[in-house]
Design a protein that fits this description.
6-stranded mixed sheet; 351 residues; alpha+beta
Length: 351
C-alpha cells in the first residue's frame, strides 16, 4: 500500500486549461472515487496519474517519489479500463499472468501468484477458459486480476463498470468493495455514477469544469454539501432548490412558505433553500410548500410524490402504504436542521 499526492496539478491543451490546480492526498489503503458530469476532468486526472498524458504543471507523487517524468510502466501503478482490454486469444490464466511476463521470479512463484489472485476473485475454476467463454462480469474480474497480480502501489479504475448491465454493475460494485476490504489496496476510481461513488468510496472527490468542488466522506458530501452544485449532484432524486429571502432568522420562500432557522445572522437578503426529498414529508396544517400531487412513484416501503407549486415541481417522500392520491392538495414540511441554505450568486453553502 502506498499513498498518492497531487499538488497544484494543471492540464492544458494549447491555450485551453482543462484542469485547474488540483490538490489531493490519497492515503495508503484508501478508496477514493472521482465523480462528476462528463467533461469535468476526472478521467483526465486519472490519465495524468497513470502517465498516459503529460502534466502541464504541478506534481504527482506516488509512494514518496515524484513520477511526472516517468513512463507508465515505471510508476508502479495498475490501471483497469472501461473496455476490459483483455486478450481474446489467451486463457484466463495467461491474461492474469500477463503483467508478470517481465518479472524476474521463478515460474512456480508466478503460477502461485496467479492462482492466489484467481482464488481471491473466485475464478479458480475458470483459469483454462478463453474470454469468449466468460460473462461480462467475469471478464472484468480478469482485468482486475491482471492488475492485482503485479501488486502495484496504486490501482487506477477508469469507469470499469459502465459497460455492464444494471444487475452486474451492482454485483461488481460489491465485489470490488469486498476486494478492497480484503487486500487493503490504495484505489483511485473514476465514475460518472454517484451511486457507485456513494456506495464504494472512503472519500469522494466531486469535480466540475476542471475544479474540485468538495472532498469528503459519502456522509459529508450528502449531509453537508459545500455548495449548490454538490447538493444537486449527490443524491437521487436530486435536492429540491427553492428561491426565497432570509430576514432575522426566518426564511420566506417565493410563494409564501416560511421556516425559522435560529443560527442565521441578522439582516435581509435573498437566499436559495435546498431540501432533499428524504427530508420533506406531508404534514398537517401550513407547510413549507403547498400544492397538488401531480405524480406518484411507488418504491414499496415509501412513495415519491411530485407536488406542483409556484416554483415548479417539488419531490417529497410519503408513506408507501397510504400516499396522498394524485390531485390531492398537500402541505409539505421539513425541520430546520434538514434544510440547506446557499448564496444565490456563488452557490456556496451558508450553514
Amino acid at each position: 500500500m502506498s499513498n498518492l499526492i497531487i499538488r497544484d496539478l494543471v492540464k492544458a491543451y494549447g491555450n485551453t486549461e482543462v484542469l485547474h490546480a488540483i490538490n489531493l492526498e490519497v492515503k495508503a489503503g484508501e478508496f477514493v472515487v472521482f465523480v462528476g458530469p462528463s467533461g469535468c476532468g476526472k478521467s483526465t486526472t486519472l490519465r495524468l496519474v497513470a502517465g498516459l498524458e503529460e502534466v502541464t504543471s504541478g506534481e504527482i507523487e506516488i509512494a514518496g517519489r515524484v513520477v511526472n517524468n516517468l513512463e507508465p510502466k515505471d510508476r508502479n501503478i495498475a490501471m483497469v479500463f472501461q473496455n476490459y482490454a483483455i486478450y481474446p486469444h489467451m486463457t484466463v490464466r495467461k491474461n492474469i499472468g500477463f503483467g508478470l511476463r517481465a518479472a524476474k521470479m521463478p515460474r512456480a512463484e508466478k503460477d502461485k501468484r496467479i492462482e492466489d489472485i484467481a482464488d481471491i476473485l473466485g475464478m479458480s475454476d475458470l483459469l483454462s477458459r478463453k474470454p469468449s467463454q466468460l460473462s461480462g462480469g467475469q471478464r472484468q474480474r480478469v482485468a482486475i486480476g491482471r492488475a492485482m497480480v503485479r501488486d502495484p502501489a496504486v490501482f487506477l479504475f477508469d469507469e470499469p463498470l459502465s459497460n455492464l448491465d444494471a444487475q452486474l454493475r451492482t454485483q461488481m460494485r460489491l465485489e470490488i468493495k469486498k476486494l478492497h476490504q480484503r487486500v487493503g489496496a490504495t484505489i483511485v476510481f473514476v465514475t460518472h455514477d454517484q451511486v457507485e461513488a456513494m456506495t464504494m468510496a472512503d472519500r469522494i472527490v466531486i469535480m466540475k469544469d476542471g475544479h474540485i468542488q468538495q472532498i469528503g466522506t459519502p456522509s459529508e458530501v450528502y449531509h453537508t454539501p459545500a455548495n449548490a452544485f454538490v447538493a444537486g449532484f449527490i443524491g437521487s432524486p436530486a435536492m429540491n432548490m427553492l428561491a426565497g429571502e432570509v430576514s432575522n432568522g426566518r426564511v420566506t420562500l417565493e410563494g409564501g412558505g416560511t421556516i425559522d432557522i435560529p443560527d442565521l445572522p441578522n439582516g435581509r437578503h435573498p437566499i436559495h433553500l435546498g431540501v432533499r426529498p428524504d427530508d420533506l414529508h406531508p404534514v398537517e396544517g401550513p407547510g413549507l410548500i403547498e400544492g397538488p400531487v401531480t405524480l406518484q412513484e411507488p418504491l414499496g416501503h415509501e412513495t415519491l410524490i411530485y407536488v406542483g407549486g409556484t416554483q415548479g415541481e417539488i419531490i417529497a417522500k410519503a408513506d408507501g402504504r397510504l400516499p396522498p392520491p394524485v390531485g390531492t392538495h398537500v402541505a409539505l414540511g421539513a425541520t430546520a436542521e434538514n434544510v440547506h441554505l446557499f448564496d444565490p450568486e456563488t452557490g456556496v453553502s451558508l450553514r
